[in-house]
Design a protein that fits this description.
By secondary structure, the chain is of the alpha/beta class. It has helices spanning about 5-15, 20-30, 45-50, 55-65, 65-80, 95-100, 130-145, 160-170, 190-200, 220-230, 245-255, 270-280, 285-290, 315-320, 330-335, 340-350; strands at about 85-90, 105-110, 120-125, 150-155, 175-180, 205, 230-235, 255-260, 280-285, 325-330, 355-360, 365. The protein has three domains: about 1-80; about 115-295, 3-Layer(aba) Sandwich (Rossmann fold); about 305-365, Orthogonal Bundle (Arc Repressor Mutant, subunit A). The protein is built from 16 helices and twelve strands. The strands form two sheets. The protein has a nine-stranded mixed β-sheet, sandwiched between helices. It has a three-stranded antiparallel β-sheet with strand order 10-12-11. The protein is elongated and about 80 Å long. The termini are far apart. It comes from Tepidibacillus fermentans.
Length: about 375
Protein backbone atom coordinates (compact mmCIF):
# COMPACT_ATOMS: atom_id res chain seq x y z
CA UNK A 1 0.00 0.00 0.00
CA UNK A 2 1.32 3.42 -1.00
CA UNK A 3 0.91 6.19 1.54
CA UNK A 4 0.88 9.85 0.57
CA UNK A 5 2.18 12.02 3.40
CA UNK A 6 -0.35 14.81 3.25
CA UNK A 7 0.10 17.97 5.31
CA UNK A 8 -3.12 17.09 7.12
CA UNK A 9 -1.76 13.70 8.19
CA UNK A 10 1.46 15.29 9.43
CA UNK A 11 -0.53 17.73 11.58
CA UNK A 12 -2.55 14.89 13.11
CA UNK A 13 0.66 12.96 13.80
CA UNK A 14 2.36 16.01 15.34
CA UNK A 15 -0.65 16.37 17.60
CA UNK A 16 -0.10 12.85 18.99
CA UNK A 17 3.54 13.31 19.97
CA UNK A 18 4.03 13.22 23.74
CA UNK A 19 4.16 16.62 25.45
CA UNK A 20 3.42 18.53 22.26
CA UNK A 21 0.64 20.92 23.25
CA UNK A 22 -1.44 23.60 21.57
CA UNK A 23 1.17 26.38 21.87
CA UNK A 24 4.00 24.20 20.55
CA UNK A 25 1.97 23.31 17.48
CA UNK A 26 1.01 26.95 16.97
CA UNK A 27 4.66 28.04 17.01
CA UNK A 28 5.60 25.34 14.52
CA UNK A 29 2.63 26.01 12.24
CA UNK A 30 3.30 29.76 12.13
CA UNK A 31 7.07 29.32 11.61
CA UNK A 32 7.12 26.66 8.90
CA UNK A 33 5.63 26.85 5.42
CA UNK A 34 5.13 23.10 5.52
CA UNK A 35 5.40 20.37 8.14
CA UNK A 36 7.35 18.34 5.58
CA UNK A 37 10.34 20.50 6.52
CA UNK A 38 10.51 18.69 9.86
CA UNK A 39 11.98 15.64 8.09
CA UNK A 40 15.13 17.62 7.30
CA UNK A 41 15.44 19.96 10.30
CA UNK A 42 17.98 19.60 13.09
CA UNK A 43 16.53 20.09 16.61
CA UNK A 44 18.49 23.31 17.19
CA UNK A 45 17.30 24.72 13.88
CA UNK A 46 13.67 23.99 14.77
CA UNK A 47 14.11 25.45 18.24
CA UNK A 48 15.66 28.68 16.96
CA UNK A 49 13.15 29.10 14.16
CA UNK A 50 9.99 28.40 16.16
CA UNK A 51 11.05 29.42 19.67
CA UNK A 52 10.12 26.08 21.22
CA UNK A 53 12.23 24.45 23.91
CA UNK A 54 15.27 22.53 22.58
CA UNK A 55 14.31 19.38 24.49
CA UNK A 56 10.87 19.48 22.90
CA UNK A 57 12.41 20.11 19.48
CA UNK A 58 14.66 17.06 19.93
CA UNK A 59 11.66 14.90 20.80
CA UNK A 60 9.72 16.11 17.75
CA UNK A 61 12.56 15.65 15.27
CA UNK A 62 13.36 12.19 16.66
CA UNK A 63 9.72 11.19 16.21
CA UNK A 64 9.28 12.75 12.77
CA UNK A 65 10.49 9.91 10.54
CA UNK A 66 8.85 8.56 7.43
CA UNK A 67 8.70 5.11 9.01
CA UNK A 68 6.78 6.47 11.98
CA UNK A 69 4.39 8.38 9.73
CA UNK A 70 3.66 5.27 7.65
CA UNK A 71 2.91 3.29 10.83
CA UNK A 72 0.71 6.14 12.03
CA UNK A 73 -1.29 6.14 8.79
CA UNK A 74 -1.98 2.45 9.34
CA UNK A 75 -3.25 3.35 12.81
CA UNK A 76 -5.50 6.02 11.28
CA UNK A 77 -7.01 3.40 8.97
CA UNK A 78 -7.76 1.24 12.02
CA UNK A 79 -9.36 4.22 13.79
CA UNK A 80 -11.58 4.80 10.76
CA UNK A 81 -12.66 1.14 10.81
CA UNK A 82 -13.69 1.64 14.43
CA UNK A 83 -15.87 4.63 13.53
CA UNK A 84 -13.45 7.37 14.61
CA UNK A 85 -13.58 10.50 12.45
CA UNK A 86 -10.90 13.18 12.50
CA UNK A 87 -11.12 16.92 11.84
CA UNK A 88 -8.23 19.35 11.77
CA UNK A 89 -8.41 23.12 12.25
CA UNK A 90 -7.54 23.50 8.56
CA UNK A 91 -10.43 21.36 7.29
CA UNK A 92 -13.34 23.10 5.55
CA UNK A 93 -15.94 21.33 7.71
CA UNK A 94 -14.31 22.34 11.00
CA UNK A 95 -17.08 23.91 13.14
CA UNK A 96 -17.24 27.68 12.61
CA UNK A 97 -18.10 28.57 16.22
CA UNK A 98 -15.22 26.52 17.58
CA UNK A 99 -12.77 28.09 15.18
CA UNK A 100 -13.61 31.52 16.62
CA UNK A 101 -12.26 30.75 20.12
CA UNK A 102 -8.78 31.69 21.34
CA UNK A 103 -7.34 28.16 21.24
CA UNK A 104 -9.41 25.94 18.93
CA UNK A 105 -8.24 22.30 19.00
CA UNK A 106 -5.78 21.62 16.21
CA UNK A 107 -7.27 18.15 15.90
CA UNK A 108 -10.72 16.93 16.90
CA UNK A 109 -11.65 13.24 17.09
CA UNK A 110 -15.29 12.20 16.94
CA UNK A 111 -17.67 9.23 16.92
CA UNK A 112 -21.32 9.46 15.92
CA UNK A 113 -23.22 11.95 13.78
CA UNK A 114 -20.62 14.54 12.80
CA UNK A 115 -23.28 16.76 11.19
CA UNK A 116 -24.37 17.77 14.71
CA UNK A 117 -21.18 19.75 15.13
CA UNK A 118 -22.64 22.38 12.79
CA UNK A 119 -26.06 22.62 14.49
CA UNK A 120 -27.16 25.43 16.82
CA UNK A 121 -26.03 24.28 20.27
CA UNK A 122 -26.48 25.24 23.90
CA UNK A 123 -24.32 23.82 26.70
CA UNK A 124 -25.77 22.61 29.99
CA UNK A 125 -23.31 22.13 32.85
CA UNK A 126 -23.44 21.85 36.62
CA UNK A 127 -22.51 19.99 39.76
CA UNK A 128 -21.68 16.29 39.90
CA UNK A 129 -23.87 16.07 43.02
CA UNK A 130 -27.18 17.67 42.06
CA UNK A 131 -30.22 17.99 44.29
CA UNK A 132 -33.59 16.63 43.15
CA UNK A 133 -34.41 20.20 42.16
CA UNK A 134 -31.29 20.36 39.96
CA UNK A 135 -32.19 17.08 38.26
CA UNK A 136 -35.77 18.22 37.63
CA UNK A 137 -34.69 21.56 36.20
CA UNK A 138 -32.05 19.97 33.96
CA UNK A 139 -34.51 17.46 32.58
CA UNK A 140 -37.06 20.16 31.84
CA UNK A 141 -34.61 22.56 30.19
CA UNK A 142 -32.98 19.84 28.08
CA UNK A 143 -36.37 18.66 26.84
CA UNK A 144 -37.54 22.21 26.13
CA UNK A 145 -34.35 23.00 24.22
CA UNK A 146 -34.89 19.86 22.17
CA UNK A 147 -38.38 20.97 21.13
CA UNK A 148 -36.86 24.13 19.68
CA UNK A 149 -34.21 22.28 17.71
CA UNK A 150 -31.25 23.08 19.95
CA UNK A 151 -28.43 20.55 20.24
CA UNK A 152 -27.44 20.08 23.90
CA UNK A 153 -23.71 20.01 24.66
CA UNK A 154 -22.19 18.74 27.90
CA UNK A 155 -19.23 16.78 29.26
CA UNK A 156 -20.69 13.31 30.04
CA UNK A 157 -19.61 13.70 33.68
CA UNK A 158 -21.64 12.52 36.64
CA UNK A 159 -24.55 14.65 37.80
CA UNK A 160 -25.98 17.47 35.70
CA UNK A 161 -24.01 16.48 32.58
CA UNK A 162 -25.43 12.96 32.60
CA UNK A 163 -28.98 14.18 33.23
CA UNK A 164 -28.71 16.70 30.37
CA UNK A 165 -27.54 14.04 27.89
CA UNK A 166 -30.12 11.46 28.97
CA UNK A 167 -33.07 13.88 28.98
CA UNK A 168 -32.14 15.06 25.50
CA UNK A 169 -31.89 11.52 24.15
CA UNK A 170 -35.18 10.52 25.79
CA UNK A 171 -36.81 13.43 23.95
CA UNK A 172 -35.33 12.26 20.63
CA UNK A 173 -33.10 15.31 20.63
CA UNK A 174 -29.49 15.80 19.58
CA UNK A 175 -26.63 15.88 22.08
CA UNK A 176 -22.85 16.26 21.94
CA UNK A 177 -20.53 14.97 24.67
CA UNK A 178 -17.05 16.47 24.96
CA UNK A 179 -14.61 14.11 26.67
CA UNK A 180 -11.52 14.84 28.76
CA UNK A 181 -9.84 11.65 27.54
CA UNK A 182 -9.44 9.64 24.35
CA UNK A 183 -12.55 9.20 22.22
CA UNK A 184 -12.43 5.44 22.76
CA UNK A 185 -12.34 5.58 26.56
CA UNK A 186 -15.47 5.71 28.71
CA UNK A 187 -15.11 7.94 31.75
CA UNK A 188 -16.62 7.57 34.24
CA UNK A 189 -16.85 3.81 33.69
CA UNK A 190 -20.48 3.59 34.84
CA UNK A 191 -21.50 5.67 31.80
CA UNK A 192 -20.91 2.81 29.34
CA UNK A 193 -24.57 2.67 28.31
CA UNK A 194 -24.82 6.46 27.98
CA UNK A 195 -21.61 6.49 25.91
CA UNK A 196 -23.05 3.94 23.46
CA UNK A 197 -26.38 5.79 23.26
CA UNK A 198 -24.66 9.07 22.41
CA UNK A 199 -22.55 7.42 19.69
CA UNK A 200 -25.71 5.87 18.20
CA UNK A 201 -27.95 8.95 18.43
CA UNK A 202 -25.62 11.90 19.02
CA UNK A 203 -21.94 12.80 18.82
CA UNK A 204 -18.89 12.33 21.04
CA UNK A 205 -15.83 14.53 20.49
CA UNK A 206 -12.39 14.90 22.06
CA UNK A 207 -9.19 16.73 21.27
CA UNK A 208 -7.19 13.90 22.84
CA UNK A 209 -5.92 11.04 20.63
CA UNK A 210 -7.55 7.62 21.03
CA UNK A 211 -6.15 5.72 23.98
CA UNK A 212 -5.43 8.85 26.05
CA UNK A 213 -6.40 8.12 29.68
CA UNK A 214 -8.39 10.66 31.73
CA UNK A 215 -6.09 13.09 33.55
CA UNK A 216 -7.46 15.74 35.97
CA UNK A 217 -5.84 18.59 34.04
CA UNK A 218 -7.57 17.59 30.81
CA UNK A 219 -11.08 18.35 32.07
CA UNK A 220 -10.71 22.11 32.66
CA UNK A 221 -9.03 22.26 29.25
CA UNK A 222 -11.85 20.44 27.46
CA UNK A 223 -14.38 22.87 28.99
CA UNK A 224 -13.34 25.50 26.45
CA UNK A 225 -14.63 23.14 23.75
CA UNK A 226 -17.98 22.68 25.52
CA UNK A 227 -18.54 26.44 25.56
CA UNK A 228 -16.79 26.91 22.21
CA UNK A 229 -19.26 24.68 20.37
CA UNK A 230 -22.21 26.51 21.92
CA UNK A 231 -23.97 29.83 21.49
CA UNK A 232 -24.49 29.93 25.24
CA UNK A 233 -23.89 27.99 28.45
CA UNK A 234 -26.55 27.19 31.05
CA UNK A 235 -25.38 26.51 34.61
CA UNK A 236 -28.01 24.62 36.60
CA UNK A 237 -26.36 24.00 39.98
CA UNK A 238 -22.79 24.84 40.94
CA UNK A 239 -20.96 25.50 44.17
CA UNK A 240 -18.57 28.42 44.50
CA UNK A 241 -15.65 26.12 43.60
CA UNK A 242 -17.42 24.09 40.92
CA UNK A 243 -15.56 23.11 37.77
CA UNK A 244 -18.62 24.35 35.88
CA UNK A 245 -17.48 27.89 36.63
CA UNK A 246 -14.39 27.18 34.52
CA UNK A 247 -16.72 26.55 31.59
CA UNK A 248 -18.43 29.85 32.40
CA UNK A 249 -15.11 31.69 32.32
CA UNK A 250 -14.32 30.14 28.94
CA UNK A 251 -17.75 31.21 27.67
CA UNK A 252 -17.15 34.78 28.84
CA UNK A 253 -13.69 34.81 27.25
CA UNK A 254 -15.30 33.61 24.02
CA UNK A 255 -18.01 36.32 24.19
CA UNK A 256 -20.74 33.70 24.51
CA UNK A 257 -23.93 34.02 26.55
CA UNK A 258 -24.07 32.72 30.14
CA UNK A 259 -27.34 31.65 31.76
CA UNK A 260 -27.85 30.59 35.38
CA UNK A 261 -30.75 28.80 37.05
CA UNK A 262 -31.67 30.40 40.41
CA UNK A 263 -31.46 28.08 43.40
CA UNK A 264 -32.21 27.98 47.10
CA UNK A 265 -30.11 30.39 49.15
CA UNK A 266 -29.61 27.57 51.68
CA UNK A 267 -28.23 25.09 49.13
CA UNK A 268 -24.46 25.02 48.63
CA UNK A 269 -25.05 23.61 45.12
CA UNK A 270 -26.66 26.91 44.19
CA UNK A 271 -24.15 29.31 45.71
CA UNK A 272 -22.20 29.47 42.46
CA UNK A 273 -25.23 29.92 40.21
CA UNK A 274 -26.80 32.58 42.42
CA UNK A 275 -23.46 34.38 42.47
CA UNK A 276 -23.35 34.30 38.66
CA UNK A 277 -26.76 35.98 38.55
CA UNK A 278 -25.50 38.67 40.92
CA UNK A 279 -22.57 39.21 38.56
CA UNK A 280 -24.79 39.65 35.51
CA UNK A 281 -25.53 36.17 34.14
CA UNK A 282 -29.05 35.96 32.74
CA UNK A 283 -31.50 34.29 35.11
CA UNK A 284 -33.19 31.45 33.25
CA UNK A 285 -36.51 29.82 34.07
CA UNK A 286 -37.67 28.49 30.68
CA UNK A 287 -36.28 27.97 27.19
CA UNK A 288 -37.88 31.29 26.20
CA UNK A 289 -35.18 33.03 28.25
CA UNK A 290 -32.61 31.39 25.98
CA UNK A 291 -34.38 31.94 22.66
CA UNK A 292 -34.81 35.66 23.38
CA UNK A 293 -31.03 36.09 23.20
CA UNK A 294 -30.76 34.52 19.73
CA UNK A 295 -33.59 35.91 17.58
CA UNK A 296 -31.37 35.64 14.50
CA UNK A 297 -31.21 31.83 14.82
CA UNK A 298 -34.99 31.43 14.42
CA UNK A 299 -35.22 28.41 16.72
CA UNK A 300 -38.88 27.58 16.11
CA UNK A 301 -40.75 25.11 18.30
CA UNK A 302 -40.99 21.67 16.71
CA UNK A 303 -43.51 20.17 19.09
CA UNK A 304 -45.37 21.34 22.16
CA UNK A 305 -44.67 20.28 25.71
CA UNK A 306 -47.71 19.08 27.61
CA UNK A 307 -47.37 20.83 30.95
CA UNK A 308 -49.94 18.53 32.49
CA UNK A 309 -47.60 15.57 31.93
CA UNK A 310 -44.84 17.11 34.08
CA UNK A 311 -44.45 15.13 37.27
CA UNK A 312 -44.36 16.82 40.66
CA UNK A 313 -42.71 15.60 43.84
CA UNK A 314 -44.87 15.12 46.94
CA UNK A 315 -43.66 18.41 48.42
CA UNK A 316 -44.30 20.19 45.13
CA UNK A 317 -47.82 18.77 44.98
CA UNK A 318 -48.44 20.00 48.54
CA UNK A 319 -47.21 23.51 47.75
CA UNK A 320 -49.00 23.61 44.39
CA UNK A 321 -52.32 22.67 46.01
CA UNK A 322 -52.00 25.72 48.28
CA UNK A 323 -51.40 28.20 45.46
CA UNK A 324 -54.63 29.91 44.42
CA UNK A 325 -55.17 33.13 42.52
CA UNK A 326 -52.85 34.91 44.94
CA UNK A 327 -51.04 33.66 48.04
CA UNK A 328 -48.11 35.01 50.03
CA UNK A 329 -45.03 32.89 50.71
CA UNK A 330 -45.56 33.29 54.48
CA UNK A 331 -48.99 31.68 54.21
CA UNK A 332 -47.57 28.85 52.07
CA UNK A 333 -44.88 28.29 54.71
CA UNK A 334 -47.44 28.22 57.51
CA UNK A 335 -49.97 25.94 55.81
CA UNK A 336 -47.53 23.50 54.19
CA UNK A 337 -45.69 22.65 57.44
CA UNK A 338 -42.46 22.45 55.41
CA UNK A 339 -39.16 24.13 56.18
CA UNK A 340 -38.24 27.43 54.53
CA UNK A 341 -35.59 25.87 52.27
CA UNK A 342 -38.03 23.14 51.13
CA UNK A 343 -40.76 25.68 50.36
CA UNK A 344 -38.32 27.92 48.52
CA UNK A 345 -37.01 24.98 46.47
CA UNK A 346 -40.55 23.85 45.61
CA UNK A 347 -41.58 27.34 44.52
CA UNK A 348 -38.55 27.66 42.26
CA UNK A 349 -39.16 24.21 40.77
CA UNK A 350 -42.85 24.92 40.17
CA UNK A 351 -41.91 28.13 38.37
CA UNK A 352 -39.39 26.28 36.22
CA UNK A 353 -42.05 23.68 35.38
CA UNK A 354 -44.43 26.44 34.36
CA UNK A 355 -47.00 25.62 37.06
CA UNK A 356 -46.92 28.88 39.02
CA UNK A 357 -45.76 32.45 38.63
CA UNK A 358 -44.26 34.86 41.13
CA UNK A 359 -45.86 38.29 41.39
CA UNK A 360 -44.63 41.37 43.26
CA UNK A 361 -44.74 41.48 47.05
CA UNK A 362 -43.77 37.85 47.72
CA UNK A 363 -47.00 36.49 46.23
CA UNK A 364 -47.53 33.55 43.91
CA UNK A 365 -50.36 32.43 41.63
CA UNK A 366 -51.07 29.50 39.35
CA UNK A 367 -50.32 29.85 35.68
CA UNK A 368 -53.47 29.92 33.58
Amino acid sequence: MVFVMEERVLLIYLHTIDRVGWKTIERIMTSLESLHLLFDFAPLELSMLSGIDLTNAERIIASFTKENIIQFQEKMIEWKRNGIQILTANDENYPRLLKEIAQPPWVLYSMGNLDLIHESSIAIVGTRNPTSYGVTVTEKLAKELTTYGWTVVSGMARGIDRVAHEATLESNGSTIAVLGCGIDIVYPKEHQRLYRRIINDGLIVSEYPPGTPPVPGFFPQRNRIISGLSYGTIVVEASLKSGSLITVQHALDQSREVFAVPGSITSKQSLGTNSLIQQGAKLIQTVDDVNQEFPYLNQTQKRSIRSESIKLTKNEEKVYSLVTDKIHIDEILSRSHLGLSDVYECLLSLQIKGKIKQIPGGYYRKNT
